[in-house]
Amino acid sequence: MAKFKKKKKGGSGAINTASLPDIVFMLLFFFMVSTTMKEVEMKVITRLPEATELSRLERKSLVTYIYVGVPMRQYQRSHGTEPRIQLNDQFATPEDIQSFIAQEREAMREHERPLMTVSIKADYDCPMGIITDIKQALRRAQALRINYSARQGDDLAYNF
Amino acid sequence: MAKRDIQEVNAGSMADIAFLLLIFFLMTTTMDTDTGLTRMLPPPVLDDQEPPPPIRERNVFEVLINAQNQLLVERQPMALSQLRDAAKEFIENPLNLDHLPAKEMVDVPFFGTVPVTTNAVISLQNDRGTQYQMYLAVQNELQAAYTELRDEISRRQFNRPYRDLTSDEQSAVRQIYPQRISEAEPRNFGGRN
What we know:
The structure holds 2 protein chains of 2 kinds.
Chain A: H1 2-10, H2 20-34, E1 36-37, E2 44-45, E3 50-51, E4 55-56, E5 63-71, H3 73-79, E6 84-87, E7 90-92, H4 94-106, E8 117-122, H5 128-140, E9 145-149, E10 151-152
Parallel strand pairs in A: 3-10, 5-8, 8-9
Antiparallel strand pairs in A: 2-5, 5-6, 6-7
Chain B: H1 12-28, E1 29-30, E2 35-40, E3 60-65, E4 71-73, E5 76-78, H2 80-92, E6 104-108, E7 112-116, E8 121-126, H3 132-158, H4 167-176, E9 181-183
Parallel strand pairs in B: 3-8, 8-9
Antiparallel strand pairs in B: 3-4, 4-5, 6-7
C-alpha cells in the first residue's frame, strides 16, 4: 500500500480534458453544416442501378429529383404495385411533371435556371416505359439536363 | 462546510454528450455524393419542324434493346460484353472500312490535322418493356467506349489520362472523339407495354 501512495505523490496531475468537448463540438458543427438531412420521405422503393462511368452531381441547389419505383408496402393498397413517380412527397403522373419543373425552376435564382439538372432516381427493375414518359415530359418542360442516378458497380460484364 | 473552496465543475461528461450528438448527426444525415450518368435530352420536336435530313447508313451505329433485354446492334444480336468494343471500332474506324463511318481531315489544336469520323452517330432505341438497369448498362458501355478512346489518345499524346488534362487539351480530344449518342423518338415495337 505504501508503494502506491508514494507514486501518487510524484506523478503529475490528471490530464486536462476540458478542451475535448470543444474539439468534438467542432466536429459536430462540421457535420451539421456539410451534410444534409434526408429531405423527402420516400414513398417508393428505389434500388439504384449500377454503372461504372459515373460523374458526380455538384451543387445540390441546382438539382431536382424525380423518384420512380414500386410504392412501399404501406402505400400499395392505395397506389397499386406498378412503378409510380414520386415528386417531393407525393405520388404523381407524368402529366404533373411539367408543372412541377416549372415550379422548381421558379424557386431558383434567375441566373441559375439554365443550369438546372433533373436527377432521375429510378429503381433498376422499372420498365423503360415510365422513364420514357418522364423523359418526354422533361423535354416538353425544357429541362434537358438530366442525370440517371446510379451507384458505383463492379465491371458490368454482367448478368444479362 | 460552506466556507470551503468550490470544487471545479466536472466537465468530463460534456465530451460524452457531444459525441452522442455527433453520432446522431452522422447517422441521420447523408453526405450523399450523388453520382450518375449525365445526359442531355434533345429539345422537343415542334409539329411544323422539317424532319432532319437522313443520315447515311454507314455513319449510324444502331443499337436496339427489346423487352427481353436483348441487344440488336447493326441488325446483329450481340452480348452486352461485346458492345463496348463494337462501339469503339465504329467510332474510330481504325482500318478505314467502307461500312464504318467516313473520315474527314480536321485541324485540331495540339494534334495537327487528323482524320476524324465527324458524322458518326450512335442511335439508341429501346422498348417500353426494357428493364431500366439494362438501358443504363447500355448507356454505360457506350460512355465507356468514348472514355476509353479518349483516354488512349490522351496517353499517346500527352502521357496522361483524359481527366488529368487541362480544359484546352480536353476540348481538343473531344474534337477528335465527339460524343454523339442520339436517342430515337420513342416507339413501341414489340412486346408488352
